What does this fold into?
Amino acid sequence: VKRPDSSSKARRTRTYAAPRGTLDILPEDEPYWRFVQAAAEETCRLFGYRRMETPMFEDVGLFSRTVGEATDIVEKEMYVFSDRGGQELALRPEWTANICRAYLQHGMHNRPQPVRVWYWGPTFRYQRPQAGRYRQFTQFGCEAIGEGDPSIDAECVEMAWDFYGRLGLRDLRIELSSIGDPTCRPAYQEALRSYYADKLDRLCADCQRRYDTNIMRLLDCKTDMDGPVTSRAPSILDHLCADCRDHFDALRSYLDEMGIPYTLNPRLARGLDYYTRTVFEITPPGEGSQSSLCGGGRYDGLIELLGSRPTPAIGFAAGLERTIATLRKQSTPVPPFPEPTAYVACQSSAAAAAALRLTSDLRKKGVSALAGVGGRSLKAQMRHANALGIRRVLILGEDELAKGTVTVRDMTTGEQKTVPRSKVAPLLTHRRP
Ligand code: AMP
It folds into this structure.
């Protein structure tokens, strides 16, 4: 570990950058974020989901118990710290466990079931940063807790699909599978174990270790991603028990009925322990599941792991940095941030107070406006307005001050007219945009 240089010169000259694996969202990125959030809100409104938020950190045990000791998240990706009171906490590495914790804590099982909620916010995983993989990233997700019927699974997949459709992304794929339940999964895991027993040398070191702890993860071994070992592995879909098979068939028939396209991918293992039955991912064109935009599934065993009675539930989480990267890649148009309507310029410092007053009056009337500041020449103020993309410059000169008028200049046409100050706001609000 390199120690930071603590000499006073080094301290004075040191520059800072955002921590590795994190992103700054700049003003020019903001239209994408607004667009994506508006789409998420509209999807949730249409499906009757209500927003929920939970703290950014929780008791570390909440995640190790539910996500699973043998998962990447718990083994090596959590940001864990002790607070001053000695409590061991973790920045949330995902949201489902927190939402279920809150569901129980607030007695939400007494509300009409399923409880349908959505969330949006930062999520933290200490992973090796690479394209589309960050240490702080934003997730939007939905959870329906308290109902096991496959129609809710169909609703969940439909909802994720609706969200991506609303964004206008093209050529996305839904990959779908079932990973069974505690009745049928153990036999499948045994079948996998005997299949892989003499092939471990062809997998990565992580997978060799997971052979004992988390055998299903071998299905997404990065070394053998599209290799012969994984592609010939037994399929979970041939090992489902009758109940899981019926559930999966019903889900598929509902999706078919709604015209939602999907591809079966029995290798979808999902990283977390708590999934049961339905699992799905949405992937962008031409890329594997390593770059999924969104992942979801049923987690009927999770609430029981938190010490309550078994409660079926399903949800999905979408990664928004990857979603926005795909919007950019596909050159999807997003509504630009509206620039202020007017720039109030003054010809002399004598007009500065009047300019501020006019700017303030405009804002009170709902017209967005900026005032030219700092004693720049009128020409410099026009250039400034132009550079900011503001179309109307309101000029206050000696003449205007004396007569209580304003000269309104349209920067695109060069047209100018002088009007009484009281007429400026109506003029700006009634003009074509
Ligand atoms: P998961 O909770 O692992 O199922 O992930 C759900 C979604 O969150 C993924 O499909 C990604 O879009 C996103 N995601 C997960 N991990 C990261 C990460 N480290 N950086 C950026 N996005 C991520």
